[in-house]
Amino acid sequence: MRLNTKVFSSVSTKSLVFGIVIVFACAAFVFTGFGSLNPGNLSGLDPNTIAKVGSEKIDLQQFSTAMSAQGLSNSTPPEQKKAVAQQIINQLIQQKILNEQAKKIGWTVDQSEIASLIKNVPIFQNPQTQQFDIQLLKQYISQQQMTESYFYSYLKQQIEIQKIHNLIYMPIVLPGKLLEVENQIKNSEFKLQYAVIAPSDSFLKKKISEASHKYVEDKTNLANLTTLFENTKNQYQQKAQVKPLSILISYKTAQRAQGDALKRTKDEATALAKQIETKLKSGADFSKLATEMNDDVIAKSNKGDIGFVDDTRIDKESMKTLLTLNAAKPLSHIIETPFGLRLFKYVDTKPAVSKKFDDVKYQLAEQLVSPQVQSSIENELQKNINEVIAAKNISNLNKIMSENNITWQYLNKPYKVSESYIVELGMTEELAANIFSLKNPGDTVPKILSFGAKKAIIKLVSKSSAHSLTPELVQTIKNQILSSTTQEFVKSVQQSLTKKYEKDGSIKINTALLN
């Protein structure tokens, strides 16, 4: 069936956001689905049919179009491709269930509805005239490798689905009292103080030190400590390191030569290095010259800085020279290396490290006992604070906070229940559920709240009630409530329909094609 272009030229030009959604729906399927669908009976499906829902078919072209939009490549693991395919099938089956329901209740979609939809999609409108252009439509269909008949059929099905959604989204009567309560919940503002519950660093360090000494003194722990030492020995055996600034002047026969160095002879490189050396001895800025004249790409981008090095990270001749440099004698002479000619300027030194087991056994013990000690102390502290705030024992609360160097801080801005994140703390789910327990300034939420990585107690400073309801605010709140409740209702209806179709054996999937 070809699209009737006369119909397109006759419909009005109102703006329909839904049109944009529909046109691009075939290239962007949401990976939600509604659980795993029962394949049902595979008999009766022709080779070009992926699945069938009642009388509605999902053909191979429809499935391939959706799959190609996912950006999968030949290197994508087969398991991932299979999972994506199943998600797309779930989504397409959900659409076909709604199409089937549309048929059962007698929905009809005529050409004028489809034409009105297409005509108001921006990509089908001429930029100069702002009018529908049939050539742009045909160009789009061609680019998507569709036939006009397929495109027409697809839009028809999507309009059917939208009509079913409109039926499900029935209006709900909201009493005025509910709107007032919702307004107070959503729009009241709270100025708050918070105190992050964590033991002080000094107290924690002391307890970990005590526990590590006790751990070392117990001979039964010697094997654990020895194993940890052997596995981490490298960090306790370190050669002397020097941190210099570096300038490399390379030439075409040097190792790893690149860029301008490939045009330079060794004699030309030597002459250039001597010019730089002369400038440095005259007080020129090493970092500036390292940025301008370097053939070492990394050093050039870091103003000559190559970090701390030892003889495992730099050639022997360079390291031998670096070990002679210090703050009193920072500049090197020109050094000949396999990579070219180098000049260095001393920045810092790390002495050699060679520690034995006895030198680090307490440090090793700290690594082993620290997580358990910290967890135990934090749990005990939280238990004690929960007990005193539940009992409203302010004096004991202040004592515990003082002992652990815990202080009250102010939130930078008032808090509203509609907010899901507080900059100073983190996610706010628990706070929203407990905030209305605070009645008067100074009241504290009667338990420690979790904000993700942080745990804190909350105190009320002041509260500002929401503004009185205006017609505009009433409509906003209504929209918020209706959006939330109807989305849940639609999801529930779709899940029920899916279960019914599965139970009736109305969903059939050709798994052979999916593999």
UniProtKB/TrEMBL annotation:
It comes from the Bacteria. Keywords: Cell inner membrane, Cell membrane, Chaperone, Isomerase, Membrane, Rotamase, Transmembrane, Transmembrane helix. The chain crosses the membrane at residues 16-37. PROSITE patterns: PPIC_PPIASE_2, PROKAR_LIPOPROTEIN. One of its GO terms (molecular function) is peptidyl-prolyl cis-trans isomerase activity. It is a single-pass type II membrane protein. It is found in: Cell inner membrane. GO terms for cellular component: plasma membrane. Residues 239-348 form the PpiC domain. It holds the Pfam family SurA_N_3. Gene3D superfamilies: 3.10.50.40, Porin chaperone SurA, peptide-binding domain. Belongs to the PpiD chaperone family. This is Periplasmic chaperone PpiD.
